[in-house]
Specification:
By secondary structure, the protein is α/β, with parallel strands linked by helices. Helices cover about 30% and strands about 25% of the residues. The protein has 16 helices and 21 strands. Strands 1, 2, 3, 4, 5, 6 and 16 form a seven-stranded mixed sheet that branches. β4 (about 135) and β5 (about 140-145) form a beta hairpin. The longest helix has 19 residues, at about 345-360. The chain is globular, with a radius of gyration of 24 Å. One of its GO terms (molecular function) is dihydrolipoyl dehydrogenase (NADH) activity.
Length: about 500
């Protein structure tokens, strides 16, 4: 299904073929690898190369964050308009212009052409090498028949790939995975979605807004978004069910049958109708979307050549250095190390890693906090762009109690002037998990329209360990949804 454009495939590469050594070699050209390379050589004469087998810019730019958000925003805007007097009368029962939405999506993914990303890398002094890179020994990487050596560091930033369960007939049915769902070219009328996590819930959200009329979710567990506070998954499930989505909880996918499966390319319907058996019941749809998790892309990186097992998450320390490898030269950042499977956290790790490499290259000590990744230890912010949105940071109540923290729960419905002004029929909820011993927030969750913009304030409170008494003096502007912070603080007086 490789149908993207590598417009700069040969530009500059021939002149690089004589280079057999760089200061820093990064395998994986997504935003995580880009950050690691640029930070490692910033303000110096050090050299860096990025090795990429697909598109420079990686999963986020072409198949994940950017296209998914481009598909989700129009539906969110339409929903807000339908709940805004003076606007809803104009909108009426009109639906989205699907062609226009997909065209805007294409403007962000550049039609799967990575020219602009290559331009950025070259402008930053980073060589781009096309091909599959793998370790062949200490500080040594092979790309095809070419061998390159790193003076200071090799960084692994290969991310993850979609997992497809071994359900009989599922792989043979050529199901959509996240890459297909974000790059859809035709909206299927009937869809079966396997999974209940972030990718599944967001995919269902934009499929609904684009006109899919029948959606069945097959969820192994008892809730959606099971990694979040329970009320978040409950709110999203109710919203989807109210819009006609059928959610089968505690469901087992027993078998899949698609006699006319065809490889038609990313985002095109892969053949004829597909029938699945779920707990003994048959369900037929035009397409099946598998959103059943991700696995690290570490199986073909040559890790065995340096004494590390491949195929699993690569264990690293807080300098992002791979454990078990001597010499302070091998690093792994982003999803491939399994610490936090989010683009913004991978980019954060890339920045830390790049700073560590630069410091070691100039014999600096690593005592400063910027040389140690700490934000992915219980301080991770995340947003699920469903309707309603879910945003959270830190740890949840159950996790806090399991860790033995003396927990206080502070929560409130989001019902302030700002939320009522944002749209009619606004409903939302907020919850803080407080460590009573330190009087600081260790976790926060917000559910409701537009709450993605609330989470950074909570992130600062969690990372900065700001006492709740001090938060009394962080006065929220009126009338904004941020006034919920005042209501939360008032609820514990």
């Amino acid at each position: 299904m490789v149908q993207y454009l590598r417009a700069r495939e040969y530009r500059g590469v021939m002149s690089q073929e004589t280079k057999s050594e760089y200061d820093v070699i990064v395998i994986g050209g997504g935003p995580v690898g880009e950050n690691a390379a640029s930070y490692a050589i910033a303000g110096s004469d050090r050299t860096a190369a990025i090795i990429e087998a697909e598109l420079v810019g990686g999963e986020c730019s072409y198949w994940a964050c950017m296209p998914s958000k481009a598909l989700l925003v129009p539906g969110s805007v339409l929903e807000q308009a339908r709940n805004m007097p003076g606007v809803k009368e104009i909108v009426g029962d009109r639906e989205l212009d699907t062609a226009a939405v997909l065209a805007r999506r294409e403007s962000y993914t550049h039609g799967l052409d990575d020219s602009s990303q290559v331009d950025w890398a070259e402008g930053a002094g980073i060589d781009v090498i096309r091909g599959h890179g793998r370790l062949s020994g200490p500080r040594t990487v092979t790309v095809g028949d070419r061998t390159i050596t790193a003076r200071h560091a090799v960084v692994l930033a290969t991310g993850t790939t979609a997992s497809i369960p071994s359900t009989p007939g599922l792989r043979e049915a050529l199901p959509w995975v996240s890459r297909d769902a974000t790059n859809l070219h035709k909206v299927p009328e009937r869809v079966i979605v396997v999974g209940g996590g972030v990718v599944a819930c967001e995919s269902v959200t934009w499929l609904l807004s684009l006109g899919t009329r029948e959606i069945t979710m097959v969820v192994r567990g008892k809730s959606l978004l099971s990694g979040n506070e329970p009320f978040a998954g409950e709110a999203v499930a109710k919203s989807l069910q109210d819009k006609g989505v059928r959610i089968l909880f505690g469901a087992s996918l027993d078998g899949v049958d698609r006699p006319d499966a065809r490889d038609t390319g990313y985002g095109h319907i892969h053949g004829g109708p597909v029938t699945v058996t779920v707990n003994g019941e048959s369900v037929t749809a035009d397409e099946i979307v598998v959103a059943a998790g991700r696995r690290p892309a570490s199986g073909d990186l040559g890790l065995e050549s340096v004494g590390v097992d491949g195929g699993t998450s690569i264990e690293v320390d807080d300098h992002l250095q791979v454990r078990g490898v001597d010499g302070e030269w091998l690093y792994a950042v982003g999803d491939v190390n399994g610490r936090a499977l989010l683009t913004h956290m991978g980019k954060y790790q890339g920045r830390v890693c790049g700073d560590v490499i630069a410091a070691r290259a100039t014999a600096q000590q690593l005592g400063e906090s910027r040389f140690s990744a700490s934000a992915d230890h219980g301080q991770i912010p995340q947003v699920v762009f469903t309707s309603p949105e879910v945003s959270a940071v830190g740890i949840f109540e159950k996790e806090a109690r399991d860790q033995g923290i003396d927990v206080e729960i502070v929560e409130s419905d989001i019902a302030v002037a700002g939320s009522s002004l944002q749209q009619d029929n606004y409903t939302g909820h907020a919850k803080l998990v407080v460590d009573k011993t330190t009087d600081t927030i260790v976790g926060a969750t917000f559910v409701g329209p537009g709450v993605a913009e609330l989470v950074h304030a909570a992130t600062i409170a969690v990372v900065g360990k700001v006492p709740l008494d001090s938060l009394w003096h962080a006065v929220p502007s009126y009338p904004t949804v941020s006034e919920i912070w005042l209501r939360l603080l008032e609820s514990r007086r």
